[in-house]
Amino acid sequence: MFGAWFRDPRILACAMVMFSSVSSACDESSMEEKLAAYNQHYPAISYPTLRKAMDAGEVFIIDSNKAETYSKGHLPGAHSLAERTTLETRLPVLKSYPIVVYCGGPQCYSWFSGADFAAAHGYTNIMHYKGGLKDWKEQGDTLSTGKN
Q1: At residue 75, what are phi and psi to the nearest 5 degrees?
Q2: Closest by alpha carbon to 43, among 102, 129, 117?
Q3: Which of the residue ranges 17-21, 27-31, 74-78, 117-121 would you say has the lowest mean pLDDT?
Q4: How confident is the model at residue 6 (pLDDT cuts 50, 70, 90)?
Q5: Are strands 126-129 and 99-102 parallel, antiparallel or unpaired?
Q6: Local confidence band at 27 (pLDDT 50, 70, 90 cut-offs)
């Protein structure tokens, strides 16, 4: 049945256009549902609470941005999700240890990957810093540029 689609590029092109129109409408509502589910499962942490935990050395931070973004600036002490092999060797032993994931800011959803990564490794106390890099800078705090 689908063999004809792949033999005739015009039919394939039409099918792709039709599918992309339908999927983009579905993607928007499914993204809202996914966001609601992630927000419910992984509570947000505010800047003051995160800063206090960082100062006390009581949080493990995962930067879910691309490697290039991480190298330009990340939260102090944050570990890059882009370097998963290294990250796996640095994860806390205690599975209930607080893990905070973040990305660029409130409109960024890359933190989903960081939360999924931590959950897949058995961590149970995962939060997200919704403000991300944007809020961190707006709070007047500085970013680090070296690897952790």
Answers
A1: -60, 140
A2: 129
A3: 17-21
A4: very low
A5: parallel
A6: low
What's the CATH superfamily of 47-138?
A: Rhodanese-like domain (3.40.250.10)
Which residues, listed in sequence order, are joined to residue 99 by a DSSP beta bridge?
60, 126
The pLDDT > 90 percentage for the chain reads 70
State the pLDDT at residue 118. 97
Residue ranges covered by each domain of the chain = 3-32, 47-138
Cβ proximity of 62 and 114 under 8 Å:
yes
> Which residues lie closer than 8 Å to 95 by C-beta, 6 or more apart?
122, 123, 124
| Of 102, 96, 59, the residue nearest 81 (C-alpha) | 102
Closest by CA position to 43, among listed 105, 123, 130: 130
